[in-house]
Structure formats: structure tokens, C-alpha cells
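Question (not urgent): is this output format expected?
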Amino acid sequence: VCLTGCSRDLMVKIDQICHRNDVKFFTGDVFGYHGYMFADLGEHEFVEEKTKVAKTNPGLEDGAEAKRAKLDSAETTMVKK
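Got this back:
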């Protein structure tokens, strides 16, 4: 369920109904430069992409080359949470 432009009382009431019935709930609104967003996802699974840390040479612990080696790592792994 997605809501926008509703009163706070209505949002809370619908969120409680969704929560009791295991339905995902999203609400938000924008006021010029400011806005808000709320999501009640209940129990859910998601996948997070983690970058593998590159192993560097022991002689390159400091300096630009060591930092570049850590940042240039293109290998990633997906972690389910």
C-alpha cells in the first residue's frame, strides 16, 4: 500500500491494518524542498552488495598505491539478510 497527501491519523490507521495483515506499507510527501518517507516492510529479506576488500602487498600498507588497490576492487559478493 502506498499513501501520499493523507492526514497523520489516516496514515497511522492504515499502517496498523497493513501491519496486522503482513502487507508492506509506504507513505511520504514533499513540501517544497522538504519531505518525508516512511516504510513498514514487516518481516522481509533483501540482498546487500558487499565489495570484497583487495589484499595488498605488505610493503604497500601506506601511500597512494595501497589506497588505490583497495578502491579499485571490482569484485563484489551478494549477502542475503
